[in-house]
Amino acid sequence: MPIRPGSWERWKREAGYPCALPRAPLIAHLLREGITRLQSAGIEEARLDAELLLASACELPRANLLAHGSDPASPALARRFRQLLERRASHEPVAYILGHKEFYGLDLMVDGRVLIPRPETELLVERALGWVRDRSPSPHPASSSDTRRLRVLDVGTGSGAVALALAANLPLEVSIVALDISAAALDVAQANAARHHLEGRVRFVQSDLLAQADGPADLMVANLPYVAHHEWPALAPDIASYEPRLALDGGPDGLECIHRFFVQSPAFLAPGGAIVLEIGWRQAEAVRQMAQAAFPASSLDVHQDGAGLDRVVVVSPSAKAPITAVG
Domain 7-90 is in which class? Predict the structure, then answer.
């Protein structure tokens, strides 16, 4: 006797059998779920972050996600993505979740031991490379013998971002020493140097600012803590709750470390040298006064970041200027 249409499905329902296996979610469905979850958690760049996390869970480049949007997601993949999603919904930075961050063409390992490299800090690297370029008769610093005697100090290296970016773009003969007070941060920086085969280019030294430096240096670059205490409550939770306070806290006025740096720097800067320093956007005038107290005949140029905010200063003491320290 032929089975009437629908009777088999009805029999399965009555017998307690599922009519169909549950469908696996598609990659595109997981992405929509992720965007919604992050938006509800107040994450500003919810779509970008969801795409980065999903790409990581899928072990795909982010650019390939759309091409795989109709692919089914395995239960393990969906579970992995949702775990990453909850970490981001708690405002843990994406860079810490993924374990790396791109900076000046280098993919750097990062975690809670170090500050996450910012795009605006690339301006610090550009100004430092520009200083080398300006003092070289060749338009290509890497080919100029004039740069071979240069010695560079990176003060407050953190993940090693600035020192390694300089090492990757300056000739082999340039000596680079990277200093940081945190032994844990130096471990990350050394791992990044090995990751990019630059371990022979940069020497890492644990030091409170310039205390363990051996001068003189032709160029000093520094990205020191410059967040003032009164600014701390306004910081995004991604920063205040996760990034190391040691790398951010500049004291009551945000200038404590910078002031100490200028106190120490006259003893370590070679005649004709320069200092390239990242600052807070309202600190240029105060930093100008510190620089002129340390190097009375110095010139100071202020450079703006992509948002038009004061971000990097270049201090150029005169080779003939008297060197004085400030208290």
Answer: mainly alpha
